Amino acid sequence: MAILTVHHVDHTYFSQEVATEVLRDIHFSVAHGEFVSILGASGCGKSTLLSIMAGLLEPTRGYVTLEGHSQNTSIGYMLQQDYLFPWKTIEENVTLGLKLLKYDDVQAKNTAQQLLQSVGLPNIEKKFPRQLSGGMRQRVALARTLAVDPKILLLDEPFSALDYKSKLKLEDLVCAMLKSYEKTAVLVTHDIGEAIAMSDRIIVMSAKPGAIHKIFDVPPELATLTPFEARTHASYGAFFQSVWKELESLEHSTSS
Ligand SMILES: Nc1ncnc2c1ncn2[C@@H]1O[C@H](COP(=O)(O)OP(=O)(O)OP(=O)(O)O)[C@@H](O)[C@H]1O
């Protein structure tokens, strides 16, 4: 069953009387528990689409539904930067959303402690973001996103600022957490390997204006593995090539 549907969305930015058509007729659904990646060239409108899905931006045409209703409560958003508040402790950062949801202090602290433990960061509640590495901060951001128990997580290149090893480790952690909390996710990325390793389906977007060019089902022998295992599986290379060719064909069609 579809948890989120993007219904024929168009978007045009208007600035200083210049109209830039960024998205055209984007239509797709994401099933409960599914992991979908959106892959496309820089500037093709991926972040714009994610902002529309999160309800942060009103599309020029079309709409988004969450479980059949016009959205947008219960969506978690995780970005390239962790956006932790530097003056708040890790515990305060993770419990912030829970406080807004009127959790009492003890409940909020327990939830934060549990989540920090599951992302491999026990005993850091009283520390401040500046005392943590980039990878640790993104793990805190993941705990904060999951704390409010969103129905769907929207991930906008959350690993791109990390070193390669931290990125691979966080990919595995995110997938494990999504599985254990039975969450649905949509990831925007430039990284074909990351999209293959993490997803069940990959949406390839063309540019100017951004449109859905092709949707790949990730072969089940890869989709059922952890991201790290998928990257080293025998069929990874051939599938990588198919996705790569599709992106290359788009580049040539726009540059010719
Ligand atoms: N607020 C805005 N006003 C006008 N144009 C904008 C605005 N935000 C984005 N754009 C333009 O819309 C297009 C799509 O931007 P968007 O950030 O959605 O693309 P993207 O695929 O996420 O890019 P990247 O992969 O580089 O992050 C770009 O040409 C960008 O310059």
What would you note in describing this structure?
The chain is an alpha/beta fold. It is 39% helix and 28% strand. The strands form two sheets. A six-stranded mixed beta sheet has the order 6-7-8-3-9-10, with helices on both faces. Strands 2-1-4-5 form a four-stranded antiparallel beta sheet, with helices on one face. The chain binds adenosine-5'-triphosphate. Residues 13, 15, 20, 22, 40, 42-48, 190 line the site of adenosine-5'-triphosphate.
Query: What is the number of beta strands?
Result: 10
In CATH, the homologous superfamily of the largest domain goes by the name: P-loop containing nucleotide triphosphate hydrolases
Instruction: Report the β-strand fraction as a percent range.
Output: 25-35%
Task: Estimate the global geometry from the Cα principal axes.
Answer: globular
Round the mean pLDDT to the nearest integer and report it: 91
Give every kind of bound small molecule, once each: adenosine-5'-triphosphate
Cα end-to-end separation: 41 Å
InterPro entries: AAA+_ATPase, ABC_transporter-like_ATP-bd, ABC_transporter-like_CS, ABC_transporter_ATP-bind, P-loop_NTPase
Organism: Metasolibacillus meyeri
Domain ABC transporter: 6-232
GO molecular function: ATP binding; ATP hydrolysis activity
